[in-house]
Amino acid sequence: MTVVLGIESSCDETAVAIVNDQRQILAQALSSQYAEHAAYGGVVPEIAARAHLAHIDALYTRALADARLTLADIDAIAVTAGPGLIGGVMVGVMVGKALAAAGKKPIIAVNHLEGHALTVRLTNDAQFPYFLLLVSGGHCQMLLVQNVGDYALIGTTRDDALGEAFDKCAKLLGLSYPGGPAVEAAARGGNPLRYALPMPMRGTEHADFSFSGLKTAVRLLIEAEAKRMGALNETIIADIAASFQHTVVEIVGERVSRALSMREYPSLTALAVAGGVAANQALKAGLKTLAAEHELPLLVAPPALCTDNAAMIAWAGLERLRLGKIDDLSFEPRARWPLAANG
Ligand code: KG4
Ligand code: ZN
Fold this sequence. Notes:
By secondary structure, this protein is an alpha/beta fold.
């Protein structure tokens, strides 16, 4: 049996996990930095890097203890080498390289986006090729996942990522950080049809996204409602959150539909959704209907494996290891690292 230890530290989650080739997660130790960043309404890179450094040792020790393993039992070390906030990526890469050198283990430099892209193979045994909607705080893309390391970009955002739009909407509404789950919770009691918001890019021939116009529209709406009412009340907050979420689900559905029908694909096995925003129930429900229309199963990992985690990094490392795609200790942490050859 092959066992890989993964390390993730590219944004605001420090995580260490251990997976095996039977698609089992043997341990998952994770520390979120919500408290550290909450006061700023977003991730502060310098604070993030220091927090990774403060937590990573304990998480490594806990992961091994939870799996009842020692470093000697690990076959390879997989670490996020980018893209991400460079200070955080450096912390993970430094620890990963140290463990690989000390334990004389192979090391695999994993692209964080590949971790998200291959998660449905860990959770659902997805087979290639599949269509992937990758929606996170930093990325918003549609990809054809053809094989490990073989991705074709179909569409991407021209401005903001979808998670970023959720976070911005939450901030404008005075909701807590991180914004995605807060908007989803506020939307639960709201009227999704109360406010009509713009749907940028809708109906266009390509499969790209844009969310900056929607963000501006939400800001203007909030300013107008605050002026009209004196202050936002709970009903207005819920109705704006619900209207925003409803609009986003419509936009994403239309864009995925466009992407699926605009070209011929090799016989797809599934429509997969990955990245933090894939944890959103309303988005999942909308995409389920759409997948059925295209006669594809919808594959979404459980929420804890949609948001950043190290199991996905360990898994991507394991997939690479099986193909002999290992690295040497000379690789550098990267702030930018596109996943697809064409983007
Ligand atoms: O994949 P991820 O954990 O980190 C990045 O690689 O960016 O994604 C984080 C993003 C954040 O913008 C967060 O607000 C969003 O995913 N998110 C959600 C939900 N949970 C997390 N957005 C909408 N609904 C959710 N339930
Ligand atoms: Zn991510």
